[in-house]
Amino acid sequence: MTESKSVVFPTTLFPNKNLINNSMNANDILYTPLDSPSMPAIDTAKLLEWVQKNTVNQDIPNRLDASKIAETAKIYPWNIIYPKHNNVWQYNFNNEFPELANFFHSAYNLSESDVDTVVLLPVRNDFAGVGLWHSDPDVYGLRMYIENQAVENFLLVRPTVNPYNERPNFDGAHQRHNEVELQDITFNAKLYLPNQTFFINNFRAVHAVNTDNPGTLRIAAIIMCRKTPELTAHIDDLIVRSAEKFKEFAIQWSAP
After folding, report:
1. What's the CA gap between 152 and 147, in Å, rounded?
2. What class is the 24-49+76-252 domain?
3. Taking the model in full, what pTM does it have?
4. How far apart are CA 177 and CA 5, in angstroms?
Protein backbone atom coordinates (compact mmCIF):
# COMPACT_ATOMS: atom_id res chain seq x y z
CA MET A 1 0.00 0.00 0.00
CA THR A 2 1.32 3.45 -0.87
CA GLU A 3 1.76 6.08 1.80
CA SER A 4 -1.42 8.02 2.54
CA LYS A 5 -1.37 11.72 1.78
CA SER A 6 -2.74 14.20 4.25
CA VAL A 7 -6.24 15.26 3.20
CA VAL A 8 -8.24 18.03 4.84
CA PHE A 9 -11.96 17.44 4.60
CA PRO A 10 -14.41 20.34 4.57
CA THR A 11 -16.58 20.66 7.64
CA THR A 12 -19.58 22.20 5.89
CA LEU A 13 -22.39 19.74 5.23
CA PHE A 14 -24.55 20.62 2.27
CA PRO A 15 -28.31 20.00 2.03
CA ASN A 16 -29.38 17.25 -0.33
CA LYS A 17 -32.61 18.70 -1.75
CA ASN A 18 -33.12 19.52 -5.42
CA LEU A 19 -30.04 17.65 -6.61
CA ILE A 20 -31.86 15.24 -8.92
CA ASN A 21 -32.47 16.03 -12.60
CA ASN A 22 -34.27 14.20 -15.37
CA SER A 23 -31.17 13.16 -17.34
CA MET A 24 -29.42 11.17 -14.62
CA ASN A 25 -28.22 7.59 -14.83
CA ALA A 26 -27.22 5.24 -12.02
CA ASN A 27 -23.59 6.38 -12.02
CA ASP A 28 -24.76 9.95 -11.41
CA ILE A 29 -26.33 8.98 -8.07
CA LEU A 30 -24.00 9.10 -5.08
CA TYR A 31 -26.54 8.01 -2.47
CA THR A 32 -30.24 7.23 -2.35
CA PRO A 33 -32.66 5.22 -0.26
CA LEU A 34 -33.98 2.34 -2.36
CA ASP A 35 -37.59 1.58 -3.17
CA SER A 36 -37.85 -1.77 -1.37
CA PRO A 37 -40.28 -3.71 0.81
CA SER A 38 -40.24 -3.05 4.55
CA MET A 39 -37.60 -4.70 6.69
CA PRO A 40 -38.91 -7.79 8.51
CA ALA A 41 -38.98 -7.75 12.31
CA ILE A 42 -35.50 -8.67 13.56
CA ASP A 43 -34.43 -9.63 17.08
CA THR A 44 -31.40 -7.32 17.15
CA ALA A 45 -30.25 -8.58 20.56
CA LYS A 46 -30.12 -12.13 19.21
CA LEU A 47 -28.36 -10.87 16.06
CA LEU A 48 -25.68 -9.08 18.07
CA GLU A 49 -25.18 -12.21 20.19
CA TRP A 50 -24.64 -14.16 16.96
CA VAL A 51 -22.09 -11.55 15.84
CA GLN A 52 -20.20 -11.66 19.13
CA LYS A 53 -20.15 -15.46 19.16
CA ASN A 54 -18.88 -15.88 15.59
CA THR A 55 -16.53 -12.94 14.95
CA VAL A 56 -13.91 -14.55 17.18
CA ASN A 57 -13.31 -17.56 14.97
CA GLN A 58 -14.42 -16.41 11.54
CA ASP A 59 -12.02 -17.44 8.80
CA ILE A 60 -12.84 -15.75 5.50
CA PRO A 61 -10.00 -16.02 2.96
CA ASN A 62 -9.16 -13.20 0.55
CA ARG A 63 -11.21 -10.64 2.43
CA LEU A 64 -11.57 -7.27 0.70
CA ASP A 65 -12.33 -5.21 3.80
CA ALA A 66 -9.87 -3.01 5.71
CA SER A 67 -10.42 -4.44 9.17
CA LYS A 68 -6.90 -5.91 9.41
CA ILE A 69 -5.01 -2.83 8.21
CA ALA A 70 -3.14 -1.56 11.25
CA GLU A 71 -3.04 2.10 10.21
CA THR A 72 -6.84 2.26 10.08
CA ALA A 73 -7.48 0.51 13.41
CA LYS A 74 -8.39 3.67 15.34
CA ILE A 75 -10.79 4.86 12.66
CA TYR A 76 -12.28 1.50 11.69
CA PRO A 77 -15.79 1.68 13.21
CA TRP A 78 -17.25 -1.82 12.70
CA ASN A 79 -17.30 -5.30 14.18
CA ILE A 80 -17.36 -6.94 10.77
CA ILE A 81 -18.66 -10.44 10.01
CA TYR A 82 -19.71 -12.36 6.88
CA PRO A 83 -23.09 -14.15 7.16
CA LYS A 84 -22.61 -15.33 3.58
CA HIS A 85 -19.45 -15.73 1.51
CA ASN A 86 -19.03 -17.08 -2.03
CA ASN A 87 -22.67 -18.21 -2.04
CA VAL A 88 -22.23 -20.25 1.17
CA TRP A 89 -24.05 -19.33 4.37
CA GLN A 90 -21.75 -19.04 7.39
CA TYR A 91 -22.29 -20.08 11.03
CA ASN A 92 -25.87 -21.29 10.42
CA PHE A 93 -27.05 -17.73 9.75
CA ASN A 94 -29.80 -18.65 7.28
CA ASN A 95 -31.35 -21.05 9.79
CA GLU A 96 -31.10 -18.73 12.77
CA PHE A 97 -32.36 -15.67 10.88
CA PRO A 98 -34.40 -16.99 7.92
CA GLU A 99 -36.43 -13.80 7.38
CA LEU A 100 -33.33 -11.64 7.22
CA ALA A 101 -31.48 -14.14 5.05
CA ASN A 102 -34.36 -13.98 2.58
CA PHE A 103 -34.53 -10.18 2.75
CA PHE A 104 -30.88 -9.87 1.72
CA HIS A 105 -31.95 -10.75 -1.83
CA SER A 106 -35.73 -10.21 -1.96
CA ALA A 107 -35.39 -6.57 -0.88
CA TYR A 108 -33.83 -5.82 -4.28
CA ASN A 109 -35.99 -8.30 -6.22
CA LEU A 110 -33.01 -10.62 -6.68
CA SER A 111 -32.76 -14.40 -6.42
CA GLU A 112 -30.83 -15.96 -3.55
CA SER A 113 -28.11 -17.12 -5.94
CA ASP A 114 -27.68 -13.55 -7.25
CA VAL A 115 -26.29 -12.51 -3.87
CA ASP A 116 -22.78 -13.91 -3.57
CA THR A 117 -21.61 -12.38 -0.29
CA VAL A 118 -23.19 -10.50 2.61
CA VAL A 119 -21.13 -8.42 5.03
CA LEU A 120 -22.68 -7.43 8.34
CA LEU A 121 -21.36 -4.22 9.93
CA PRO A 122 -22.45 -3.42 13.49
CA VAL A 123 -20.77 -0.19 14.62
CA ARG A 124 -18.50 -0.70 17.63
CA ASN A 125 -19.91 0.50 20.94
CA ASP A 126 -16.73 2.45 21.71
CA PHE A 127 -16.47 4.25 18.38
CA ALA A 128 -17.06 8.00 18.08
CA GLY A 129 -16.33 10.59 15.43
CA VAL A 130 -15.65 10.18 11.70
CA GLY A 131 -14.42 6.79 10.57
CA LEU A 132 -12.32 5.60 7.67
CA TRP A 133 -12.92 7.53 4.43
CA HIS A 134 -13.11 4.89 1.74
CA SER A 135 -14.74 3.42 -1.33
CA ASP A 136 -16.00 -0.16 -1.13
CA PRO A 137 -14.86 -2.78 -3.68
CA ASP A 138 -18.29 -4.21 -4.53
CA VAL A 139 -19.78 -3.44 -7.94
CA TYR A 140 -23.36 -2.41 -7.22
CA GLY A 141 -23.30 -0.52 -3.91
CA LEU A 142 -26.37 -2.26 -2.45
CA ARG A 143 -26.75 -1.59 1.26
CA MET A 144 -29.25 -1.81 4.08
CA TYR A 145 -29.60 -0.73 7.66
CA ILE A 146 -31.07 -3.49 9.77
CA GLU A 147 -31.22 -0.90 12.53
CA ASN A 148 -29.90 2.64 12.84
CA GLN A 149 -30.78 4.72 15.88
CA ALA A 150 -28.70 7.64 14.58
CA VAL A 151 -30.63 8.88 11.55
CA GLU A 152 -28.91 12.29 11.55
CA ASN A 153 -25.26 12.83 10.56
CA PHE A 154 -24.70 9.09 10.22
CA LEU A 155 -22.92 8.97 6.85
CA LEU A 156 -20.76 11.54 5.06
CA VAL A 157 -20.25 11.43 1.28
CA ARG A 158 -17.64 13.25 -0.76
CA PRO A 159 -17.73 13.20 -4.61
CA THR A 160 -14.82 12.72 -6.97
CA VAL A 161 -13.79 15.50 -9.33
CA ASN A 162 -14.00 13.21 -12.37
CA PRO A 163 -17.21 11.37 -13.40
CA TYR A 164 -15.89 7.81 -13.22
CA ASN A 165 -17.99 4.98 -14.64
CA GLU A 166 -15.93 2.29 -12.90
CA ARG A 167 -14.08 2.24 -9.62
CA PRO A 168 -10.86 4.28 -9.94
CA ASN A 169 -7.51 3.37 -8.43
CA PHE A 170 -8.09 3.58 -4.70
CA ASP A 171 -4.90 1.54 -4.16
CA GLY A 172 -6.49 -1.45 -2.49
CA ALA A 173 -9.87 -2.67 -1.34
CA HIS A 174 -10.63 0.16 1.09
CA GLN A 175 -8.11 2.89 0.35
CA ARG A 176 -8.21 6.49 1.37
CA HIS A 177 -8.16 7.99 -2.13
CA ASN A 178 -4.41 8.66 -2.40
CA GLU A 179 -4.53 9.13 -6.15
CA VAL A 180 -8.13 10.20 -6.69
CA GLU A 181 -8.99 13.90 -6.68
CA LEU A 182 -12.04 14.79 -4.61
CA GLN A 183 -14.32 17.79 -4.66
CA ASP A 184 -14.30 20.28 -1.80
CA ILE A 185 -17.79 19.42 -0.69
CA THR A 186 -19.18 16.96 1.86
CA PHE A 187 -22.77 15.73 1.78
CA ASN A 188 -24.69 14.48 4.78
CA ALA A 189 -26.75 11.40 3.83
CA LYS A 190 -30.18 11.11 5.42
CA LEU A 191 -32.57 8.26 6.21
CA TYR A 192 -36.37 8.26 6.09
CA LEU A 193 -36.54 5.06 8.18
CA PRO A 194 -34.17 3.65 10.83
CA ASN A 195 -34.15 0.33 8.95
CA GLN A 196 -34.10 0.53 5.16
CA THR A 197 -32.19 -0.35 2.02
CA PHE A 198 -30.03 2.23 0.26
CA PHE A 199 -27.39 2.67 -2.45
CA ILE A 200 -23.88 4.09 -2.10
CA ASN A 201 -21.76 4.97 -5.14
CA ASN A 202 -18.27 3.42 -5.09
CA PHE A 203 -17.19 4.94 -8.41
CA ARG A 204 -17.71 8.68 -7.97
CA ALA A 205 -17.50 9.15 -4.20
CA VAL A 206 -15.87 8.16 -0.95
CA HIS A 207 -17.84 7.88 2.26
CA ALA A 208 -17.31 7.67 6.01
CA VAL A 209 -19.37 6.63 9.02
CA ASN A 210 -20.01 9.41 11.50
CA THR A 211 -21.00 8.67 15.12
CA ASP A 212 -21.93 11.50 17.47
CA ASN A 213 -23.02 9.26 20.36
CA PRO A 214 -20.97 6.11 21.13
CA GLY A 215 -23.05 3.04 21.88
CA THR A 216 -25.92 3.98 19.59
CA LEU A 217 -27.28 0.83 17.93
CA ARG A 218 -26.37 0.70 14.27
CA ILE A 219 -26.19 -2.42 12.08
CA ALA A 220 -25.55 -2.13 8.34
CA ALA A 221 -25.14 -4.78 5.65
CA ILE A 222 -23.30 -4.85 2.32
CA ILE A 223 -24.98 -6.99 -0.35
CA MET A 224 -22.50 -8.21 -2.98
CA CYS A 225 -23.35 -9.69 -6.39
CA ARG A 226 -21.25 -10.91 -9.28
CA LYS A 227 -21.59 -8.49 -12.18
CA THR A 228 -23.72 -9.53 -15.15
CA PRO A 229 -25.42 -7.40 -17.86
CA GLU A 230 -28.84 -8.52 -16.64
CA LEU A 231 -28.15 -7.61 -13.00
CA THR A 232 -26.59 -4.29 -14.00
CA ALA A 233 -29.70 -3.27 -15.95
CA HIS A 234 -32.00 -4.39 -13.13
CA ILE A 235 -30.06 -2.61 -10.37
CA ASP A 236 -29.44 0.55 -12.41
CA ASP A 237 -33.19 0.84 -12.96
CA LEU A 238 -33.82 0.38 -9.23
CA ILE A 239 -31.29 3.11 -8.36
CA VAL A 240 -32.63 5.69 -10.80
CA ARG A 241 -36.27 4.95 -9.99
CA SER A 242 -35.53 5.21 -6.27
CA ALA A 243 -33.63 8.49 -6.62
CA GLU A 244 -36.59 9.95 -8.47
CA LYS A 245 -38.96 8.75 -5.75
CA PHE A 246 -36.79 9.97 -2.85
CA LYS A 247 -35.62 13.28 -4.31
CA GLU A 248 -35.31 14.95 -0.92
CA PHE A 249 -32.90 12.24 0.25
CA ALA A 250 -30.93 11.37 -2.90
CA ILE A 251 -27.54 12.93 -3.68
CA GLN A 252 -26.37 13.38 -7.27
CA TRP A 253 -22.89 13.86 -8.68
CA SER A 254 -22.27 17.13 -10.48
CA ALA A 255 -19.11 18.71 -11.89
CA PRO A 256 -17.21 21.03 -9.53
Report:
1. 13
2. mainly beta
3. 0.86
4. 9
